[in-house]
Specification:
Radius of gyration: 25 Å
Number of helices: 1
Distance between the termini: 42 Å
Strand content: 35-45%
Length: about 475
């Protein structure tokens, strides 16, 4: 983060009508958050100043995480059965200077209430003297999955972004390792690895000025961990390059301090802070977004939006619907050869729920897939159920036929039904945007099975057959799109 104030001036979800963006709940107030880490079933992220946030479900956040040493912009990682924290003790213009220090420390647990909660003494691994072309602040960690070696980057706009190698067993600087300059014109960097590429993500723009902050996150990539890191048009990040990952939108501005969490194959989220959330008085808040990958480049997915949608199978492009009789729309038929262009055009109204609901069976109705035809039995209203909590990246929702209380429901025999909504766990759904931009739709619980469901998803077993089956990212049967017409 830098303390400069400037006073100057994609996915498969198609939004056409009124929708409501769902924000983080609880008190997600933080600046410069670390990558989210899990400890004993809870989620933790640490921020500037020594504190941090805790979440029991990944969606509702509150203060309570503890980290000694103060300073700024930590990062966190689990290595084996221990947690490594790295942070900047000074720098960033704090106190008027750029003489910073980067320190590491360990803990057996992140739970401050645990008897094992005790951080080791912090050890300096890098520094800047306030005069050199670097500011030792805003560090991040990467444990290379291909080599087992560990790397850290740090720095701000005051000079270069530098990379050093650390010992993953001790957290100390590798003896004899010299820092390497890898980027300029950014700060709050992060390193990740995917499919043979190393990615350097940096925060560009200005911070710490509320709704006037211009922070955004950019990225370059390299086949070598030490670079060079080039963007999508070949510009080196050492010369100011960088491809956009996320910028302002949805009434939040200033995204910075990228973190990546892999939930499942093809299910990833990115964390950051927003310098200002317009809906929360311009406060700096934790942000969670789906992380997509397009042509080998990371990009932020959509924040969840309530609304009414066609739920479309990726397998064939058919729509999820109630298994009811198709009711024709009456229209005055004219031949294509009618060339009386002076005759007034009469639009055809959409079929309404009132037109057809009396033709539907009473009680439960099974669910299937079929051609989308703008019919009421194909329009699903997706709404958050606040009391149902959430998961890492989103809230649980109900999926009901628009204008009714008839809810999509999982059954004990792994089939689908539509029943009166009661708030039962088999009527609550987890919707996650996948790395390719499609979605998986997962019931919170399967009747008769203990605990949260983390395996079965809405599944297109045939062109017209919807069911529940184990999630398989490699199969389009597991994938859906939300379209608003």
């Amino acid at each position: 983060m830098k303390y400069r104030h400037f006073f100057a001036a994609c996915g498969a979800m198609f939004i056409c009508g009124a929708v409501s963006t769902v924000a983080q709940v609880g008190q997600p107030y933080i600046h410069d958050p670390s990558t989210i880490v899990e400890c004993d079933g809870k989620y933790y992220t640490f921020g500037t100043g020594g504190g941090g946030l805790i979440s029991e479900d990944g969606w509702s956040w509150h203060s309570g995480a503890e980290r000694p040493g103060g300073g700024a912009a930590p990062d966190a990682m689990i290595i084996g059965d221990r947690y490594l924290i790295i942070y900047g003790a000074t720098g960033g213009g704090l106190g008027g200077g750029h003489n910073g220090r980067i320190l590491t420390m360990w803990n057996k647990t992140l739970d401050p209430k645990s008897p094992d909660f005790k951080f080791t003494e912090a050890i300096e691994v890098a520094s800047s003297d306030g005069m050199e072309d670097n500011d030792a602040i805003d560090p991040c960690l990467l444990l290379d999955p291909t080599t087992g070696r560990m790397w850290a980057t740090y720095g701000t706009y005051f000079g270069t972004i530098r990379m050093i190698e650390l010992d993953p067993a001790t957290g100390l600087r590798v003896a004899g390792n010299e820092p390497k300059d890898v980027a300029i014109d950014c700060e709050a960097t992060d390193l990740i690895y995917r499919d043979g590429w190393y990615y350097l993500l940096g925060t560009h723009g200005t911070c710490c000025d509320g709704v006037n902050s211009t922070y955004n996150i950019v990225v370059g990539r390299s086949r070598n961990v030490t670079g060079p890191y080039l963007d999508n048009v070949g510009r080196d990040m050492y010369h100011g390059g960088g491809r956009m990952v996320i910028a302002a939108g949805d009434r939040v501005t200033g995204p910075g301090h990228f973190g990546r969490t892999i939930i499942d194959e093809g299910v990833e989220i990115m964390s950051c802070h927003y310098e200002a959330d317009f809906e929360q008085g311009g406060r700096s808040v934790l942000g969670l977004r789906p992380l997509l990958w397009r042509n080998g480049w990371p990009i932020a997915g959509e924040r969840f939006k309530e609304g009414t949608y066609e739920i479309e199978s990726e397998r064939r492009g058919y729509a999820l619907e109630l298994a009811v009789d198709f009711v024709r729309i009456q229209q005055e038929r004219r031949g294509w050869f009618n060339r009386n262009n002076d005759e007034p055009v009469k639009p055809i109204a959409n079929q309404t729920l009132q037109d057809v609901i009396d033709t539907w069976p009473k009680g439960d109705i099974p669910v299937r897939i079929n051609d989308y035809m703008f019919r009421p039995h194909q329009l699903w209203s997706v709404k958050v159920v606040p009391e149902a909590g959430g998961f890492l990246g989103g809230p649980y929702v109900k999926i009901v036929i628009e204008g009714t209380n008839r809810a999509l429901t999982a059954t004990a025999n792994l089939e689908l039904n539509s029943t009166e909504f009661t708030g039962a766990p088999e009527q609550l759904w987890r919707i996650e945007q996948l790395t390719d931009g499609t979605y998986r739709i997962m019931p919170k619980q399967i009747p008769g099975q203990e605990g949260l469901n983390t395996r079965y998803v809405l599944y297109s077993a045939g062109d017209c057959t919807a069911t529940l089956a184990p999630y398989d990212f490699s199969s389009d049967n597991s994938k859906w799109n939300f379209r608003q017409h």
